[in-house]
Amino acid sequence: MFRSEYADVPAVELPIHEAVLGRAAEFGDLPALIDGTDGTTLTYEQVDRFHRRVAAALAEAGVRKGDVLALHSPNTVAFPLAFHAATRAGATVTTVHPLATAEEFATQLRDCAARWIVTVSPFLETARRAAELSGGIEEILVCDSAPGHRSLIDMLASRAPEPHPAIDPVEDVAALPYSSGTTGVPKGVMLTHRQLATNLAQLEPAIPAGPGERVLAVLPLFHIYGLTALMNAPLRSGATVVVLPRFELETFLAAIQNHRITALYVAPPIVLALAKHPAVARYDLSSLKYVISAAAPLDADLAAACSRRLNLPPVGQAYGMTELSPGTHVVPLDAMRDAPAGTVGRLIAGTEMRIVSLDDPGKDLGTGERGEILIRGPQVMKGYLGNPTATAAMIDPDGWLHTGDVGRVDAAGWLFVVDRVKELIKYKGFQVAPAELEALLLTHPGIADAAVTGTPTDEGTEVPHAYVVRGPTAAGLTAGEVMMYVAERVAPYKRVRRVTFVDTVPRAASGKILRRRLKERP
Q1: Residue ranges of the alpha helices (H) in 337-429?
Q2: How far apart are CA 345 and CA 329, in angstroms?
Q3: What is the C-alpha separation between 213 and 210, in angstroms, rounded?
Q4: CA 488: distance to chain centroid?
Q5: How far, in Å, are 69, 82, 340, 403 from residue 119 at the CA level?
Q6: Residue 412: inside a domain, yes or no?
Q7: Which of 105, 207, 252, 503 shows its CA 20 to 30 Å from the CA of 122?
Q8: Helix axis angle, 124-134 to 102-112, nearest 10°
Q9: What residues are paired with 74 via a beta bridge?
């Protein structure tokens, strides 16, 4: 068993809004949130006051403890207000990919029995359609403004009393992001107030922050990585979060320059752009102190090229997953120059790890040996919503979460993730479940069989690659037609990007698709 070198941190038994914004009065007039495109700024005092007023208005509208509120929005300065107002009113927040189709959105709404939606006007049509398809939605609110819908801006004028629901941080679910786990279709990951709050405390010794730190939030806040690293961690510490709605290179670089960003938390495709794109040379990025990459594996040579170009310490990595609130490993800021190339870091405070044999899962392996990574700690999820079978498959009776990743640990405690047991495709940090795409492909009348794998690209990510068996009457079916069929039915990040026609899909006797055999094709 491997244990963190940091001292254990006590469990943070506070509602997440108190754990994050409990020091807002102390930080007062310091800037908390800045819109990186138009400069709109909210101080800590305003964030504290505004989210309390929105919580009061939500409670007045009928939001009660145990309700699920779906937050369907790109990154804006209103996102943290909506999230923490909802939890203060006693609700669980399920975050929704802003580019989800109405059908995907409705599936999530039905699964978690959501009663409320908070969205933005450009995505209102999708939200309305999802609400119609799912049933059970009481009201759709908007962060900005739209005819016929109440806005969070209007709610700031509420005179209703601030709600004080009896929140049990140990048991009550604060966030319900959706993840595919190690395989299969997305499932609701139940993260309690204590799990989220404690993970923030676990991360702090390794990556401390405070007033004066300026973090650029360009990765999506609906994703647990963004929610923790780009929203809750900096707001907990008095740092300033500069928010961008999406990654566009020139806008991103201008924001670093104009807002004197000190810290970047990114994914590998952004590291690639920083390392190689000629536009980088046109901007003053000298305010940056460090870059951390997570959400997908980062090539060591690419990390080194990025750090050389920016004249920074080597790009650090972090490791975790939605089911782990999400962090378990990070390269500490004070060890960035000493960390070996390619490591995803050391165990954070209060976290234990085992490396177990792939052939004999009951056998623990030692330093330098490759096996599946198992994690135990206070950040392990409560479970999958309504799915005890999937929960039991993920977390064993002793509390060890089986990550599905293959790793090794060196003598100094650095973890290297070398492969995946699981079949998920990581496309630019987003999870794509092959089973979901395979099920969709099989609805095409011209497709007899199909399998989907992740194919690596030069950008350090993977793309969904479909292997398709044409039906007997579909000899003329083209790759373009297959890709279009999928594109019309899924969010953009789930689209099939490559198609190979095959005579048969290789399967084991059990019927399981032999994806490795497909990946080994020339």
Answers
A1: 388-394
A2: 5
A3: 6
A4: 24
A5: 11, 10, 43, 32
A6: no
A7: 252
A8: 50
A9: none
Structure tokens at 211: 């007033």
Q: The domain containing residue 137 runs over which residues?
A: 2-405
- Which of 382, 379, 21 is closest to 173 using CA atoms? 382
Q: Is 243 buried (19+), middle (13-18) or exposed (0-12) by CB count in 10 A? A: buried
The full DSSP string for 82-121 is: HHHHHHHTTPEEEEE-TT--HHHHHHHHHHHT--EEEE-G
How many residues are present in the chain? 522
Tell me, what DSSP letter sits at residue 227?
I
Separation between Cα atoms, residue 330 and residue 225, nearest integer Å: 13
- The pLDDT score that the predictor gives to residue 510 is 46
Convert the pLDDT of each residue in 345-370 to its tens digit: 999 999 999 999 987 889 999 999 99
User: Pick from 405, 439, 469: which residue ends a domain?
Assistant: 405
The Cα–Cα gap between 327 and 417 comes to: 14
Same domain for 429 and 391?
Answer: no
- As given in the structure block, the two tokens for residue 106 are 């409705």
Is 182 among the domain residues? yes
Q: Are residues 175 and 30 in the same domain?
A: yes
CATH of the domain at 130: 3.40.50.12780
How many whole angstroms from its chain centre is CA 15?
21
Closest CA to 375 of 390, 357, 361, 395: 395
Q: Are strands 92-96 and 116-119 parallel, antiparallel or unpaired?
A: unpaired
CATH number reported for the structural domain that contains residue 459 in this entry: 3.30.300.30
The predicted model scores a pTM of: 0.86
pLDDT in tens, 205-233: 999 999 999 999 999 999 999 999 999 99
Q: Is the pLDDT of residue 431 over 80?
A: no
Instruction: Please answer whether residues 519 and 467 qualify as being in contact, where contact means their C-beta atoms are separated by less than 8 angstroms.
Output: no
Q: Are 395 and 380 in contact (CB under 8 A)?
A: yes
Where are any strands of DSSP class E within 331-429?
346-347, 352-356, 371-376, 383-384, 401-409, 415-420, 425-427
User: Is there a domain that residue 413 lies in?
Assistant: no
One domain for residues 379 and 500: no
Span 382-405, pLDDT tens digits: 999 999 999 999 999 999 999 998
Q: Contact 70/116 with Cβ under 8 angstroms?
A: yes
What is the number of domains present in the chain? 2
Alpha carbon distance 274, 95 (integer Å): 29
Backbone angle region of 90, left / alpha / beta, with phi > 0 → left and psi within -120 to 50 → alpha: left
Establish if 261 belongs to a structural domain.
yes
